[in-house]
Structure formats: C-alpha cells, structure tokens
Amino acid sequence: MAWSATLPLTQGSARPSLEKARATWRAAFLGVRAETERRAAPLSAEDQIVQSMADASPTKWHRAHVTWFFETFLLRPHLPGYEIFDERFPFLFNSYYVAAGPRHARPQRGLITRPDSEDVLAYRAHVDAAVTRLLDSVTDEDADRVFTILEIGLHHEQQHQELILTDILHAFAQNPTDPAYDADWQPPKPAGGPRSQVAVPKGIHAIGHDTRGFSFDNESPLHDELIADVRIARHLVSNADWLAFMEAGGYETPSLWLSDGWAAAQNEGWEAPGYWRKKDGAWHVMTLGGLRPVDPAAPAMHVSYYEADAFARFAGRHLPSEAEWETAARAGLIADAFGIAWQWTRSAYLPYPGYRAPEGALGEYNGKFMVNQMVLRGSSLATPEGHERVSYRNFFYPAARWQFSGVRLAEFV
Length: 413
Ligand SMILES: [Fe+2]
Known about the structure:
Helix 1 (18-40) runs parallel beside helix 5 (140-173). Strand 5 and strand 6 form a beta hairpin. The protein is α+β, with helices and mostly antiparallel strands. The strands form 4 sheets. The chain has a 4-stranded mixed beta sheet. Strands 1-4-12 form a 3-stranded antiparallel beta sheet, covered by helices on one side. The two termini are 41 Å apart. The chain has helices spanning 18-40, 59-78, 89-93, 117-137, 140-173, 239-247, 259-268, 305-314, 322-330; strands at residues 197-200, 203-207, 223-227, 230-233, 276-279, 282-287, 290-293, 342-348, 374-377, 394-396, 405-406, 410-412.
C-alpha cells in the first residue's frame, strides 16, 4: 500500500492570486483530511479505542485531536461566528498545549469510549465544513495568517497520520492473535548496491532549513557546523547485521552499553529489536501485515537509541551526528535516507543557535521538548508522502522503540 497525500508548499514561493491560493489550500486540506480517514478505515471502532501504553494514543483520539487543532488555532480566532462543535472536546483532545487550557491525562486517553467513533466523524465533518467556509471567505488582508496556520495544521495532521500506524502496530503487537493492519502490506524495498561507506565532505556546512517551503520552527535558524573527517554508511544496518550482534552476545555484554541503556535493557528484558519474537525456533516480527519471518536483508527497525548506540560500539563505529547526516543527505551520498526507518543520530535534541520558540500557544509545538531526547533524521515507511525533508528533526526519548526507528553508522577517519 502506498501512502499518498501531497501538500502544495507555497510559503516562500511567488505569491499566487487569492483565488488560486484558496483553491490550492482547499485541495491540500481535503487531501490531508482524507488521508487520515483512509489510514483509519481498516480499523474497527474497537481497534480505534485502545491505548496500549502512555506514549501511544488511540486512533479515535488522533482523528479528534488533529481536528481540535484546526478548531482551536484556526477557526476560533479567524472564522467570525464559528460555533464550537462540543464544549467538552477541548478538554478531551488538547494534547499538551498549556496555553490552550486544561486537558485530559494522556495515559488515560484509552478510557474515553464516549464520544464514540460516530461523534468523532461528525466533529471532523463540522470542522471540515468550517475550514472550507473560512477558505472561501478569507480576505486578502488575513490570507497570509490563515494559510500559515492552516499549513501548520496540515503538517501536524500528517505527523499524526504516522502515529496512527505506529500506535496501532504497538497495540496489535500486544494481541496474541497477531492482527494485521493490512494483510497485503509489503515493506518498502531498501536500495541495492555495495554496502560501502562514503566520505562526508569535511569543512563548514550550513545546517537547517533554508526558508524555501514549509518547515517546523525547530529546523531554524540556518547555521554553520564544522564537519570533521568522517565516513557514513550508504545503507541502513540490516536485520542480518543485528542477528550477528545478538549471536555475539550484544544484549548480554554490559561494556557495549551506556549505563542508562543497560538499565533499560535489563528492566525491559530486551534481547532483540522491538516486536521480534521466536516462533517455531525462528525469529518473527510484528509488522503492519501481521507476524512475518524476519527478513535478514531488510533494515533493522524498532530499536531504541540505547540499542543503536550499543550496536555502533559493537561494530567499532559511531552514530552520525545530525549535522553529518544532513550534510551527507544534501550531497546525495546516502541511500534510503527517507521512507524506510528514521535514523537515530548521536545528537541531543537541542535548540539551534539563536532559536526562540514562537510566541503564543503554537510556540509549545516543539521548543519545550528540547531536553533529554535524541534526534532522528530521515523519515519512515509510515511517513506520509511529501512530509519528509532533509532538514526535518524528529525526536524521541532514548528508550523509545515503537517508532520505525533504525540505524545508520558512521566512522571517524
Ligand atoms: Fe498533536
């Protein structure tokens, strides 16, 4: 199954006429909203309620939360006469925006059986109609502000489209009947060619977003970074590589691990990547297509930062920094940068020099999470088409392994 949603990226390009811009944004909005429903469609109402851990959210919550985002940040301030769909919903579907008011406890999202799926569908239709009205009526004066917030809302919804898949896979992985999200699902094919390492151009390189097209605030400011003599792997670490790590006792060798990583591995009982399990003596893995034999040639994924770091130490290498990764990707040196697995970097998720979170509630989007997490680069098989970017900074806590997270190695020369 190929994911398809295409956003027009008009910010920063020549300004089209208002009529043309309205039509472009209307199509973009409807396209993204339809993709969310398409991803939810294979899931029953029961599937859509479950929350398998605090970090994962129910599909129904994702569908409502992205709708709340448009209602709160676009419609209420910018559509005169907008009537809120249900006064109780902001409390239920605000995620973490303190400035937007109180909210339901995140770990308890799975307890909300009502409003039900039909209510959420009606909420989505109500907001879709209102956004369409806003686009039809927006004046030249307000257009830039409205389109800017709409664009953030669309990229936000695409992020949740990815989470719909990662979160339901985690839920299905807890189910002894090994449900398939899509029984015909096939993993993306990794690139062929020699599994070599390539030199990253050393010297000073501009890192970050160059202001053409959309970006999140955490990708700016564009700034210089010094790249040392380093080589980076063209390919992602494979399951065959990971099996060699396991067979060499990688999960039982404390000297390969960071102290926090070793503690996490012991507490969680890690002995293989996430979703791997032995069946009839052979390793299998839960995928969107259900339980499948582990393919040795496929990229390893569902590994935490701690595992990625231990693997790199085992291999006598390092994880790339995010600046090394970005420089190599911009130079076209690496295969499978996008579309298979996010790649852990050794970079902590920190503000770029001079970064300031934007004013207002939307300033909470990224900036307040810049501590204790690690950056991943690229994109994954669950990332909607058109959402990836060379400057994109994803971030997760180092023990997280429910995303499609993989490993690319680097080596200092
Ligand atoms: Fe969100």
